[in-house]
UniProtKB/TrEMBL annotation:
Ranges for domain FAD-binding PCMH-type: 40-221
Keyword set, alphabetical order: FAD, Flavoprotein
Name the record gives this protein: FAD-binding oxidoreductase
Family per similarity comment: Belongs to the FAD-binding oxidoreductase/transferase type 4 family.
Keyword Disulfide bond: no
InterPro entries, A to Z: FAD-bd_oxidored_4_C (IPR004113), FAD-bd_PCMH (IPR016166), FAD-bd_PCMH-like_sf (IPR036318), FAD-bd_PCMH_sub1 (IPR016167), FAD-bd_PCMH_sub2 (IPR016169), FAD-linked_Oxase-like_C (IPR016164), FAD-oxidored/transferase_4 (IPR051264), Oxid_FAD_bind_N (IPR006094)
Length: 477
């Protein structure tokens, strides 16, 4: 029999730890209890906003004392319900919003120590102030936090050159499920002293402990950047262009983003001040970014020569080069507004998948045809980070005039998932490239992970969180 929760005692203890103003209940807690896409909603005894690692540890120990679960939450921008509590009231949502200090920047060592609640955009700014680059970049960077980025092993637009969140992290500070503090904030690039505990917590979505701070890598700030948008006939041509760009630009190639004409048309429809730079319509587009440690003239020449070769070989149909920072930002906005435009169009079924780069065109061609046969009328919103094999292969409801409401469309989600994820599995890919598993893909994970993998994952969970107090219901359930 589960003992009832002494709510008054818990709330009083939380107020003693974090201050009364930082213990949120009732209707004020509502924004913390629903995910960004409004697909998952839950309940909690309270939302608490601790301001230090020690306060986090005290909250976790209090939760353990009263048999409560702890649900860590950063900017609440996740797409898989990983930071949303379940429907029970035996939860405490632990918001990291007050863990928001940049503790230190070491420009010579090219490292920075950040608390988990620092927004990604602030981390980028702090690096720039020191003449350095923190390259993790994604559409939600104004509100997404470092702790959330690490907990989902976020990727973004520059993985091609710099790697994902895991690659950018050297050390962590973590509060364990027992309320102990692991101080692993080393700033070393070589540290071969046993099991890599850091990598256990990165991508674990708060199910093993609470990340409270991280030591991340910095890089020299590029002296110049070149941006271009190109129009193409096919994904095959986009892959050939990628190969050419990697050969021509080598390590200066920072971004290579693919999106279909339908993606662009949605942005134009729902963001009327954003228009295609091309006079004609084209089936596919790629946004290319080159960043260089040479002067702007050298970067422009490099990008121009690349596009000239691509045009001469027939790989691209048209190209536009940004000649200012403003023009570059406008081109990037066409790419970055796709998710919001799709949301404005109506309900959608999202896939955050990765496939070996060499097989992406074949995957898109075969899976598009399969989805069209099984779910007539749906519209494909395909875009993503082609340079690292990550596609957001999304399905939107049939367009205007179709006889299908949002409810019946969303009811198709399990069947759509099975169709697409079976294809991903067949092509040697992953059902989650950068968004995590959360609640959304929990059952899907069980279908595609081998029994050996699942056994090892469950053994790690039992070892680090034997009472299943840390973010229950996510990843493994």
């Amino acid at each position: 029999m589960v003992e009832p929760v002494d709510a008054a005692a818990v709330l009083a203890a939380l107020a003693e730890i974090a201050g009364t103003a930082n213990v949120i209940t009732g209707t004020d807690a509502a924004p913390y209890l629903t995910d960004w896409r409004k697909r998952f909603s839950g309940a909690a005894l309270a939302v608490v906003r601790p301001a230090s690692t020690e306060e986090v540890a005290r909250v976790v120990r209090l939760a353990a004392l009263h048999g409560l679960a702890v649900v860590p939450q950063g900017g609440n921008t996740g797409l898989c319900g990983g930071a949303t509590p379940d429907a029970g009231r035996r939860n405490i949502v632990l918001s990291t919003s007050r863990l928001n200090r940049v503790r230190s920047v070491d420009a010579l060592n090219n490292t920075m120590i950040l608390e988990a609640g620092v927004p990604l955009a602030r981390a980028q700014e702090a690096a720039r102030e020191a003449g350095r680059l923190f390259p993790l970049s994604l559409a939600a960077e104004g509100s997404a936090t470092i702790g959330g980025n690490l907990s989902t092993n976020a990727g973004g637009t520059q993985v091609l050159r710099y790697g994902n969140a895991r690659d950018l992290c050297l050390g962590l500070e973590v509060v364990t499920a027992e309320g102990e503090i692991w101080s692993g904030l080393n700033a070393l690039r070589k540290n071969n002293t046993g099991y890599d505990l850091r990598d256990l917590f990165i991508g674990a979505e708060g199910t093993l402990g609470v990340i409270t701070a991280a030591c991340v890598k910095l890089f020299p700030l590029p002296q110049s950047t070149g941006t271009a948008m190109v129009a193409l006939r096919s994904v095959e041509d986009a892959l050939a262009l990628l190969d050419l760009a990697q050969h021509h630009a080598a390590s200066t190639l920072t971004g290579f983003e693919l999106f279909s004409d339908f993606c662009l048309s949605l942005v134009e429809k729902h963001f009327s001040d954003h228009r295609s730079p091309f006079a004609a319509r084209h089936d596919w587009h790629v946004l290319i970014e080159i960043s260089n440690h040479q002067a702007a003239e050298a970067t422009s020449t490099l990008l121009e020569h690349l596009l000239e070769r691509a045009l001469a070989s027939g790989l691209i149909e048209d190209a536009v080069i940004a000649h200012s920072g403003t023009q570059a930002a406008e081109l990037w906005e066409l790419r970055e507004h796709i998710s919001e435009a799709q949301a404005a169009e109506g309900k959608n079924i999202k896939h955050d998948i990765s496939v070996p780069i060499s097989r992406i065109a074949e995957f898109v061609r075969e899976t598009d045809a399969l989805v069209a046969r099984r779910f007539p009328g749906v519209r494909m919103v395909t875009f993503g980070h082609l340079g690292d094999g990550n596609l957001h292969y999304n399905v939107s409801a049939p367009g205007f005039g179709a006889v299908q409401d949002d409810g019946s469309f969303i009811a198709m989600q399990p069947a759509v998932y099975e169709t697409v994820h079976d294809q991903v599995h067949r092509f040697g890919g992953s059902i989650s490239a950068e968004h995590g598993i959360g609640q959304l893909k929990r059952e899907e994970l069980l279908r595609y992970k081998s029994p050996v993998e699942l056994t090892m994952m469950r053994a790690i969970k039992r070892a680090l969180d034997p009472h299943n107090r840390m973010n229950p219901g996510k990843i493994l359930g």
